[in-house]
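Incident review: delayed structure delivery

Summary: a single-chain prediction request sat in the queue longer than the usual turnaround. Root cause was a stuck worker, restarted by the on-call engineer. No data loss occurred. The affected request and its eventual output are reproduced below so the record is complete for anyone auditing the incident later.

Affected input:
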Amino acid sequence: MTIQIGAHTIEHPVMLAPMAGVTDRPFRQLFRSLGASYVVSEMLSCDLSLLKTAKTQYRMNHEGEPGPIVVQIAGSDPDALAEAASFNQQNGAQIIDINMGCPQKKVAKKQCGSALLSQPDLVKAICQETVQAIDIPVTLKTRLGIDESNKNILKIAQIAEKAGIQALFIHGRTKTQKYKGQATYELIKQVKQTVNIPVIANGDIDSPKKAKQVLDQTGCDGIMIGRAAQGNPWIFKQIKHYLKTGRQMSKPDHHSIIQVMYQHVKNLHDFYGEFTGCRIARKHIKWFMRDLQLDPITRQILTIEKAEEQLMFINQQLLQKVA
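Output delivered after worker restart:
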């Protein structure tokens, strides 16, 4: 079950969702190596004056990544988004994704992300100008609407398709829901029945059974995993296996989890430098260790200040503990 986005064939339907502060290059590389068919960069502002900041430089780094290189951009000005799309194409992007899904207050107050869903005419202008500015595919990441009374995803989807958007990634919540409550998929099903471009469902997909349920319910071309992937890069192979065979794949043993965590932490150190990498690694360590039931040790490792000590602790104390 492949998905076609422009000239790019995505080998299977299980994809990694973009997450600000999470899906950096080391994270994307790990998840591609362990089974995700498609990954997306962290959200990049369309404000090109931020290009020289360290955060933006890290987010624009795609060195050594397998294609397609997918860059997500955010903003509310059609001209600025078009310019940002063109710049990122020149920087190696092979697909541009427009963010109309982020519900966070600091994004919404700038009328970016999911706040744009309240302005269909602006959505149309953004999609049209971005598509016209580049010669690579443009996709759209979005939500069901602003709130329960304003679920206009069907209209947004039709606007997007007509403007030349080549795939839709839809989170099954509204802007005001943020990540509370439960995602719903009926409107995503209706979008899939209405448009002729790939539709990928997102939201609360946290197991192989849930993945199959959502695919069966919506008829979508694929699914996108977000928070359920944190600390669990094996979920992609597990879902892929279940969709193919109908059987559950065994979970990784504790030793395998620690080994993968060690390499990922090392990659974070290499990418960000030891000082910053050590601190960024803490949240990843916490995610990896969530199900290992080693609470005292988890608390201990999260206090380590030096990269070398962090790696040594994982390689010695943790591996001995789960041996």
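Verification: Residues 254-272 form the longest helix (19 residues).
Action items: add queue-age alerting; document worker restart procedure.
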